[in-house]
Structure formats: structure tokens, C-alpha cells
Amino acid sequence: MSTPTADSVAGQAVKAADRAHVFHSWSAQALIDPLAVAGAEGSYFWDYDGNRYLDFSSQLVNTNIGHQHPKVVAAIQAKAAQLCTIAPGFAEESRSEAARLIAERTPGDLDKIFFTNGGAEANENAIRMARLHTGRHKVLSTYRSYHGATANAIALTGDPRRWANEAGVSGVVHFWGPYPYRSNFHAENEAQECERALAHLEQTVAFEGPGTVAAIILETVVGTAGILVPPAGYLAGVREICDRYGIVFILDEVMAGFGRTGAWFAADHWGITPDLLTFAKGVNSGYLPLGGVAISGAIAETFAQKAFPGGLTYSGHPLACASAVATINTMAEEGIVENAKLIGETVLGPGLRELAERHPSVGEVRGLGVFWALDLVKDRETREPLVPYNAAGADNAPMAQLAAACKQRGLWPFTNMNRFHVVPPCNITAEEAKTGLAVLDEVLTLTD
Ligand code: PLP
């Protein structure tokens, strides 16, 4: 492991230039204080003052094989020496190989891969394919979701980041997905939640007009909006509804895919094959921008004789694809997907449940693999969230304090609303995971 060396002066210069010229995502520019990062390795990154952080966020839940994996770094370097770029219209070795490796791992007949630069673009193109394939316009998505920040993707997103982007695009309809802990359907158990959520979805389709609905898009396991693992039978039920009405089923695996849930794709846990599956992030551990859509045989056939009217200058970029090839091969060689499963079953799952026994502010622990959330509450009986929905400023103080306390103790957290998400790299060691849990144990006293 490289050791961070302190160089505060260099760090201050990086920060000053950042504050002068970098316009940050999702932020009030004058109110932020970004950490200047000097380097990273494995499950850790560090700043210019020599402070090391155990990355329990995997950045934006994308460094699935950790930071600076030498095999992926070497693959990018080798590709850069051979061919930095070539337009999407050419056949290129890294692109073909990445597509093959992805198609081999996606479920069912999702055998054609359209490459994008990230998750939002993947969803944009999946929606375009669904509309052209069905000749219909509407797309249904859940209120508890995040699908990206481009026009259709943000309109489909349920979380409040949608609000400022409205009026959105036409043809977007939201519905409620299952969330047994805070049921919209007054369900008393998971089976009831599943049944009622499916009835609600079918009714939504009926009232929207089945012949107008092109697609239903779901995150297989909802990520940013709460790490919501679907109850048994839900995804199969959605698949049936889609089949009944000729609707394209899109699974967004941008966050859940490539090992995060302890399987190559989260859909594998339920044996579901969507018509389109979107991916990004973990496909190459975020080392270069890459995403894509895995396409079923039937939808690929729609564009066999007529042109697909979509494309991107950097689609299937050789450097990004070379990093995906190296990432996927490394995950297979080093058993990283299996590691995510094992860490979830033997360390994170039991460890987080143990924390819940000791800390009354933990209302629910849920997740799988290296994809967990603590749903924090003011009161376990009423399940009132620790902070109100979309809280900011003073209202969000308990969550801000929790995050700050983690950072002071060398743990980089991922918090969202009233939740603490535990989303470390898929190749985190048991020892590192336990180190993070020990910090969490300490800081949760702040919210109890
Ligand atoms: N879909 C899901 C489920 C995501 O979690 C994200 C990003 O967090 C996106 C789509 C958007 O991906 P990107 O930021 O690469 O456009």
C-alpha cells in the first residue's frame, strides 16, 4: 500500500484552483468545501495532509474493484500506447471484447451492446429503443428512483432532483414501487406489499392506456433512493405485466450491476431477463466514463434493417472499453463478485444487524452483497425518519453530523436523506469492512 505523504501547500493550491474555476454538480457553489484528493489505492484514498479515508462510498458507488487496480491501470496504459481513439463506426478490439464479456454475463438473450459514456445516456438510449420498438410513447418509473441527469432520465427519476428540472418531458408517469418498511399500500408483510404494488402498477398501466405505454423502467435494487431490495415475486410480476401488454421492461443496473449485489447483475438473484438492461459505473470501476445498454434479440431485430437513430462520438471508446475488459477479467480472476456476496453474508449483513440491536436510531437494515442501507429513525415505533424528506440546512443537521464524525475517524460515508448507505468496493477485505463497522458503531451514538 502506498503511503500518503503530507503536502498541505500543494493541497491548498489544488483547492484554490478548484474553488476559482470548477463548477460542481448538485451544489450551491459558494457553500461547498471539496476535499483535495492526492491519491488512492484499494479501499482507501487520501488527501494532501496525509489523512487516509476508508472508502465506504466507492465514490458514487462505482469503484467496484477499488482504487488504482494495477491490472486495469496497466490495460489503460497499454491501450493508450496502441490506439487512443477511433470512431464508433469501426470494429475495434477492446470494444468487441468488452461487448462479448458483457453479453456473456447479462441474463437471457441480451446479446447486443450499445455503448454510452455513462448511466443517464444509457437510459436515454434505452427509452429511445423502447419507443421505436413499440411505436408507443409513455414510460413508467417509480417515485423512489434515480435514473440520471439528462432530459428523459431526470424526468423519470423519482427523487427530488427531478423537481428543479420540471416541466419535464412528455410521456413520463410515476408509480409506487414496493418498500415494505414504509409501505404505501398499508401492507403488513412482504407478500402483501408485493401483491399490492403489482396491482397498483397494473392499474396504472390500465388507466394510462396499455397501448400508449412503451416501457416500464426500474432499478433492479433501488440504489440512491434507499437500497430497496424487491420482495420475492415483484420483478417476475412486473415481467408478466410487461408481457401481457407488450411493454418493454428496462432494468437499470447502473448502480446494482457488476458485482455490487454479490452477483454479476442484480437480476440474477430473481432469474429475471428484462428486454433492455442499462449499465455503467462498475463495468470498469469508473476508471473512465463508460456505460451502455444490453439489448434483447427482439429489440435488436427492430434495428436490423432500419437504422437506430442514436449515437455518441465516444460510444465504445477504446480506452474505456480496454478498462472494462480488464475490470471484468480481473473480477472473474480474483473472485470479486463472490467476495461481495461473502462479505455481505458474513460481515456486513450480520455486523449491521448487530449495530441495529445496539442503536435505537437504526430503524431498518436492508441490502445484499456490498449494497446496504441503515434507515435511521427518530422513533422506532412510529418509524419517523431521523430527518424529514429532502431536508436541508438545520433540518439535516443530524445526518450532516454523522457524516462529519465518520470523516473525522477516517471513514468516507455515503449518506442520503435519513439513510446511511454502506457501499464499499466489492473487493473490500473482511478486516477493512470490520474497521468501517467499528467507526459506524461509534458515530451512531450521535443519532441515538
Ligand atoms: N441510474 C442509476 C441507478 C444510477 O444510480 C445513476 C447514477 O448514480 C444513473 C443511472 C446515472 O448515471 P450517470 O451519472 O453515469 O449518468
Automatic annotation (TrEMBL):
Gene Ontology MF term list = transaminase activity
Q: Would the keyword Transferase be found if you checked this record's keyword annotation?
A: yes
Question: Which key words tag this protein in UniProt?
Answer: Aminotransferase, Pyridoxal phosphate, Transferase
Pfam families referenced in this protein's UniProt entry, alphabetically: Aminotran_3
Family matches, as InterPro entries: Aminotrans_3, Aminotrans_3_PPA_site, PyrdxlP-dep_Trfase, PyrdxlP-dep_Trfase_major, PyrdxlP-dep_Trfase_small
Family in the record: Belongs to the class-III pyridoxal-phosphate-dependent aminotransferase family.
Q: What is this protein called?
A: Aspartate aminotransferase family protein
